[in-house]
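I'd like us to work through together how a protein chain folds, taking it slowly. We need material for that, and I hope you will provide a protein of your own picking. Go ahead whenever you are ready, and we will take it from there:
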Amino acid sequence: MGAQLSTLGHVVLSPVWFLYSLLMKLFRRSTPAITLESPDIKYSLRLIDREIISHDTRRFRFALPSPEHILGLPVGQHIYLSARIDGNLVIRPYTPVSSDDDKGFVDLVIKVYFKDTHPKFPAGGKMSQYLESMQIGDTIEFRGPNGLLVYQGKGKFAIRPDKKSNPVIKTVKSVGMIAGGTGITPMLQVIRAIMKDPDDHTVCHLLFANQTEKDILLRPELEELRNEHSARFKLWYTLDRAPEGERGRPRAGWVGGASLQFTFAQPFARCLAVTMALWEGGGVAPSHG
């Protein structure tokens, strides 16, 4: 009799256990593990690949804790890299070019500021040169998410005036973006998030400033997005020095009143302006208005 009850119990409980296991598996799949669980904790990530994009630009790929992990970085936020260089702690902000659609890795596209190449910064960029010197398998510390702006989709931005303030929600129809050099990576992050959602009708206008045409970072990615989403993404370049003898190329000149009037000729209803300026050493500092 005991054996019969045991068997009966097994028969009755098995479907319940099977359903429970299935639900747990589905739940785990729908909520991938997040790497950046706390902005106050540093996470050591391992370099697994380096791609040379140009003479001074690299794509660094770092492994997340498991192939099923995502970074866990909201759109509009950035991370900090920290390392001890020549005995000093160096911290720099960067925005990944990968997203939480990518599992198991995070990609950073970084311009390496080599020493003795810029008269104003003869020592070059400490962090970018450190990254250039890293070997496959080396680790570096990530911390985040950080930042005062989060894009929530459908034209909705949550913006904090400062770190201690609650976010203010702004809903816009257009976003005017001005980026210089490596300041393009935060812009690309937001643009990609908008363009991948067919129900997001927000229009992005980007003015991208560089010294020369060869310095235009992530140009193929930007122009692919423009070609695929021409109604929602408008792209202009401006250069300090235009190619000699060539017309129909990116405009030459400083970003100022004239270039802004040329780019943003149409007045925007409910428009958010976002700028990214270069920090010394290759980081970026966001501002918005």
Observations:
- The helical segments are 2-30, 126-133, 184-195, 219-228, 257-263.
